[in-house]
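Problem: given the chain below (170 residues), write out its structure.
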Amino acid sequence: MPAAISDPPPAAPSPQAMRHALGRFATGVTIITCLDGLGQRMGLTANSFAALSLDPPLVLWSLRLASPSLAAFRACRHFAVNVLAETQVELSRRFASPSADKFGAGHWAPGLHGVPVLGGCAAVFECLSLSQQDAGDHALFIGQVLQLDDQGVSPLLFQAGHYRLLGEIL
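Solution.
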């Protein structure tokens, strides 16, 4: 019996098409922080944050392999995920830029193990870094939540390349 003829697999979507389609999914905006090997504060804006498990409490986020901050996050034992409030758009922009003094704005305090935590944000998850794995052009970080703070304020959202505010459904 002859082998079945199959259609060739479809071409993979381009990175631009993926970015555009993924942009349809609204996400929260976070500033992920840690201390580097010299004890210096590090931070960056990320919207690649998600819940992973409730028991044990685990979260996950990802960072481009080309990021200049990658080495600091790979080496740190603890990190914090600061979920931005809708009033913190400028902090999001500041931490998404190559600014030399990112921590010069906002109300920052040392959290567990000295990791910077942001006051006035919607929530903070202070984590033990459990595992890392490269996946495509990103590194995935899984953290066990050691402490959290939930302020109950409206979060900042990002969708289709723009910041958004959460609105009520009437």
